[in-house]
Amino acid sequence: MNFRDGPRRLIADCRGTVAVIGALSLPCLIGIAAFAVDINRGLQQRVVNQRVADLAALAAALAYNVQKQEVILAPTARDLARINGLPDATITADLLTDVPTRGEKAVLVTVTTQVPIMLARGIGLGGSYTVAASATARLQAPESIAPCILGLTSSGDAVSTSGGATIDAPDCAIAGVGDVNNGGSRIAAKNIVSGAGSIRNNYGSIVADAVRYAVDFVSPSWNGNVPAADKRTKAATTIADPLQDNPEITAARALIGTYDPPANITDPSTPAGEDWVFGSDFSPNVARFRRGNGNYIVPAGKYTIGALKITGDTTVTFSNQSTITVARGVTIGGGTKVNFGDSDVSINGGFDGAGVTFGNGNLSIGSGTLGFSGSNRIGDGRVSIAGDLALKGGTTLTIGKGAHAFRSISVGGGSWMWAGAGNTDVVAGIDIGGDSTLALGDGNYRIGRAANGRSIALAGSAIMIMGDGAFSAGGSIASEGGSRLVFGRATNHLINGELNVRGAVLFGAGRYTIAGDLVNGTGGTKWPYTSRVTGQTYGAQLEGVSTSDTDMAGVNVTFILSGTLNLSGGARSKLLSSPNGTTAGTITSLLVDSATSTATAWGGGSDSIFSGVVHLPNSDVTISGGNSTQSAGQCFMLIANRITASGGSTSGSTCAGLPGGGGTPGRNKVELIR
């Protein structure tokens, strides 16, 4: 061999060796690639398993929330796996306690499948391997059930009973930031929670599916009328006002104390003219109108009169389409019949008339002494009276449609006044005496206040009825026992003062913004009522809801107060909020709101049916003296600084949650936590 050929032969031999090694290692490389493919299939299967585990955990948790039985967990999870394409998977479902925090529960679901080894069999691997995925769904914590009774104070008792008092809320929670103390007959609820304090019981009963407290649970050893130990959880709970900083409420409170002032009323323009006297001793200038036997007919025309006086058994008729001005007053004696026709009439210098008819046309009476007696009528048209309108001694006054403006209105002594549809302005308030009625038709109301600060005052057995339309009062409203007050529907009733009702009141749908207290006092005057003036019946129903046998009733209403809601005497109230906020001006499910810290009292045998949230977060509410405050099968929520029930009072709600009023029940909510 040539020495120089050696390296070439060596290289050739090496090439052959590498080829042999490569050939021998090829099956290994193919096996590794196949194994990688099988591993990737397992990873893909794990993604599927995790998705199914998540869904199964949520479904099982929801099922448990409804049935409260562990046996439902595994079947629910297996059904979820089957309908999601894993009929052969191994499914486990377990109920965990104290997860994720002490006192809470969760459902753990594990989904396990076998992934067969396929391609890697070429290198001697076979069989299958296990792929598992787990998910945990948190059940709703006990405190998340919407509270119907909620005390916000952290100092001492937030919710308490004494004497024979009871509080019942079987489908929702009774909760307090501070202590919940049953010194009365019973506190019963779905859950009872003391967020930062203790739950205490004396001789009465505590009834609940679960109780939760931060400090202690105290009950005499001899008293077994409490939830079993396994239903009690010692754990702090964060409790807050669900309506705190609610933007709708904040905006509504900003309107307290605002009102629309009534239009200013001015005296009409009445040029000077000759005096006209009708009667047995008539003035020469009216002789041309005489038709014999005390009968006068004034043809259509424009008449400028100084003073107008009509006496004796006289009939005076002004023809239609006249324009009549009187500069120095009108005096019409008893026994006369005067008809001004369908004319425009302007009067200064006072008016004293009996049995007078003004037809369709504009009537303007200036300031000065003003009085009607007998039966009087004013037709359709604008009516402006700058003086104080006083009806007494059985006087009646009917006014037709049109804008109506008065300095003040006083109706007393069995008198009545009825005005048809049209806006009503009253500068210095309305006063209705006993057995007297003021009835006003649809239209916007702007009522100022009298010197005593009242916009409307009703004596015992007085009646005031208003139609639908925007309402504004510059002062307070007060009614005495036996009276009746009817508000029409309006987006917002602005009352710049308190509303103190001692008779009966009907609240038309809408919001009531009151700068002061809302008080329902003595009671005894019940709805329905049929008016002798309008011929209509009021109070049998409101918005399709029966309000019979109540003295204070409102349906689809919201009250925004600067004061509070006080109930006393034998008052019977039925106030229902708008459950969906569709009634203009109302706030969804909000019945009463006030930021006042003034104490609230519901007592004296008063009996109330409330639906909606009574939101008094800074006020201490005392329910006493045999008061009954219930929801009558509807949702009622009371939120206050402190809630105290005593002296045989009964309070309760059949409610599982209110839209916009504190959330929904926990049994309908779960979440994945891992």
What does this structure look like?
β47 (541-542) and β48 (545-546) form a beta hairpin. By secondary structure, the chain is mainly beta. Mean pLDDT is 88; it is low at 6-12, 14-26 and 659-668. The strands form 4 sheets. It has a 6-stranded parallel β-barrel. The chain has a 4-stranded antiparallel sheet with strand order 1-2-3-59. Strands 45-46 form a two-stranded antiparallel ribbon. The protein is elongated, with a radius of gyration of 41 Å. It folds into 3 domains: 3-139, no CATH class; 144-240, no CATH class; 274-633. Helices cover 12% and strands 42% of the residues. α1 (6-67) packs across α2 (73-83).
Spatial shape: elongated
C-alpha termini separation: 77 Å
Structural class: mainly beta
In total, the number of domains comes to 3
Instruction: Estimate percent helicity.
Output: 10-25%
What ranges have pLDDT less than 50 throughout 5 or more consecutive residues?
Answer: 6-12, 14-26, 659-668
Strand content: 35-45%
Major sheet: 6 strands, parallel, barrel
Task: Summarize, please.
The protein has 674 residues and is mostly beta strands.
Question: Which key phrases capture this entry?
Answer:
single chain, 3 helices, 4-stranded antiparallel β-sheet, mainly beta, about 675 residues, 59 strands, 6-stranded parallel beta barrel
